[in-house]
Design goal:
The chain has 13 helices and 18 strands. With 398 residues, it is α+β, with helices and mostly antiparallel strands. Strands 7, 8, 9, 10, 11 and 12 form a 6-stranded antiparallel sheet that branches. A hairpin with a 4-residue loop joins strand 10 (200-211) and strand 11 (216-218). Helix 5 (161-170) crosses helix 6 and helix 11 (332-346) runs parallel beside helix 12. It is elongated, with a radius of gyration of 25 Å. The two termini are 42 Å apart.
Length: 398
């Protein structure tokens, strides 16, 4: 689950993490009020108007405006609210800006990068830091990996003060004096505490700035959360912005389905995340593009399979559907009954290829074969990928 920058900063401030003075705004009236409040609290005219969407690169796309005074800030708010903001993460369709963050202007001396993230290769939480703040960390990792320092957190002993000191040395904070060095140690500890307390999967501060007044401040904040732990955090769940989420993903969540929309035209329904990834890979191997990742889970019911099929068919980009199921806990006849129920309810306007293997596979195949519907069976995963691509390409040629 993702949240907006202003929401992330509100959460981090609960843990004592230093963030700028800022107020959210949802229309011009609240924007004007936020501008005046931020100016009064910060004691300066300059404010920053930031578009709030679930995507990075907002500054490069024109979604962050430094305004010298209240009039310029209002003009920026008028321009940003309702605009279609396009960044490298939104794709060419962009996102409509419906929320703003009005924030105090700051005198910046240095920009840095810090993050707390789960390192899946090591199986531990990693705290990362770099002197290259304000840049895409992926580019820094490619071009200058030595500029990224990291410490892994041992779950048995937690994040230690010596690790925070090592990271602050990597950020070269000591040259600014012991007071700022101690600020850095405290801030990193607060970020790790927040990460664990809120069951985050990512806490990223880019940039972390040192002001000319000698303060470390999180100028930006990106927080992601482990969906499986949200039941412990109803207050965080309430921060979800459904306008920023793909409607199909929202619908899938209601049925406990793992669904992510992609840019291709081959709809996929699979059980198990590993098999789903392999299915997408083999579609790409034969020259196709998957339209989604959809894992119905190991013990899906007929109703869940029906819901999954409906979600796939509602995507106008889908030109064909490949169902690839290995029945272990999930029985192949259950999958077959769910597919038939969905097809009879919503119809079938695109080619459908089904590969079943595992528990009750013979019964599942017989149910599909005797249905009288235009469903193509596949003997294995590769056969299924080839068949769905041939059917889609044939339909396009016709």
């Amino acid at each position: 689950m993702n949240i907006h920058e202003y929401q992330g900063k509100q959460l981090l401030s609960r843990f004592g993490v230093p963030v700028p003075i800022g107020k959210p705004a949802f229309d011009l009236t609240s924007a004007q009020a936020a501008i005046e409040q931020v100016q009064a609290q910060s004691g300066r005219e300059e404010v920053v108007v930031k578009a709030q969407i679930h995507a990075g690169g907002r500054g490069k796309g024109g979604g962050v405006v430094v305004a010298r005074d209240g009039a310029a800030a209002r003009q920026a708010a008028e321009r940003l609210l309702g605009m279609r903001l396009v960044t490298h993460q939104t794709g060419p369709e962009g996102r409509i800006v419906k929320r703003l963050l009005i924030e105090q202007g700051m005198d910046i001396e240095r920009e840095m990068y810090v993050a707390v993230v789960l390192d899946r290769q090591v199986g531990r939480v990693a705290v990362m830091a770099s002197t290259e703040g304000g840049m895409d960390i992926e580019e820094v990792a490619r071009s200058s990996p030595e500029k990224i320092v990291r410490q892994h957190v041992d779950p048995a002993v937690g994040f230690r003060s010596w690790q925070a000191r090592q990271l602050c040395l990597g950020l070269d904070l000591l040259r600014h004096g012991p007071a700022i060095f101690q600020q850095g140690i405290k801030l990193l500890s607060q970020l790790v505490l927040a990460f664990h307390a809120m069951d985050c999967s990512l806490v990223e501060i880019n940039p972390l700035v040192l002001t000319r007044q000698g303060q470390l401040v999180c100028l930006d904040a990106k927080l992601n959360f482990d969906d499986n732990a949200l039941y412990r955090h109803p207050d965080i769940e309430d921060l979800r912005d459904l306008d920023e989420e793909e409607p199909a993903e929202t619908e899938a969540r209601k049925h406990d389905l793992s669904y992510i929309k992609l840019s291709g035209d081959i709809g996929c329904m699979v059980n198990g995340a590993g098999l789903a990834m392999a299915t997408m890979d083999i579609i790409r191997h034969y020259g196709g593009m998957p339209a989604n990742f959809l894992d119905v889970g190991g013990g899906a019911s007929q109703d869940k399979v029906t819901a999954a099929f409906k979600i796939i068919t509602r995507d106008p980009a889908v030109r064909g559907i490949f169902i690839n199921i290995f029945g272990g806990i999930m029985k192949c006849d259950t999958i077959a009954e769910g597919v038939l129920a969905a097809v009879r309810e919503v119809g079938l306007s695109v080619p459908l290829v089904v590969r079943l293997e595992g528990t009750n596979v013979a019964l599942g195949k017989r149910i599909l074969d005797e249905s009288g519907l235009n469903i193509v069976s596949a003997s294995d995963m590769a056969d299924g990928a080839r068949k769905i691509l041939a059917l889609v390409r044939g339909a396009q040629a016709a």
